[in-house]
């Protein structure tokens, strides 16, 4: 894929505020921050969208990435996503949401285009605001809560000390997956990463 079709919008889903920074629900923010470093972008407040935004290119003259962290809470992420997509004239097919996924074991990454939201409030808000479910999702497995812990409490708690040993590597790998979607496409990325 070349850059002729315009930029890609990468949405790191999470909640704003220092108290949420290390939560499982904020892994999308972590991936977006790593990608910003890779493309030489720096996050700053956007004038049209309630979000922090960074921009840069993948490699020399490569595809342009518009990276965003919505500054609304998770269940209201769709408004800033649509505002930024309209500002940059980016169609839903070139929007990538990076999010935590309860239905995938910790450490596994999955890519898909479209489909249901699996009860994820950030995705639900995006689908409603975009008017379609046909955008790419990079799903970062966080596994199910132990015992009878409420899933809502689980996603808003920090990664365990055992999980944190691998977290940096996994966030790095998730950023690789995003880059692969942009440069190779969804299906080749699935073939590359779903077996791992």
UniProtKB/TrEMBL annotation:
PANTHER family, alphabetized: PEPTIDYL-TRNA HYDROLASE
PROSITE patterns noted in UniProt: PEPT_TRNA_HYDROL_1 (PS01195), PEPT_TRNA_HYDROL_2 (PS01196)
Please explain the role this protein plays, according to its UniProt record.
Answer: Catalyzes the release of premature peptidyl moieties from peptidyl-tRNA molecules trapped in stalled 50S ribosomal subunits, and thus maintains levels of free tRNAs and 50S ribosomes.
Q: Where is the active site?
A: 25
Location of the protein in the cell: Cytoplasm
Designated name of the protein: Peptidyl-tRNA hydrolase
Instruction: Supply the gene name.
Output: pth
Q: What is its main location?
A: cytoplasm
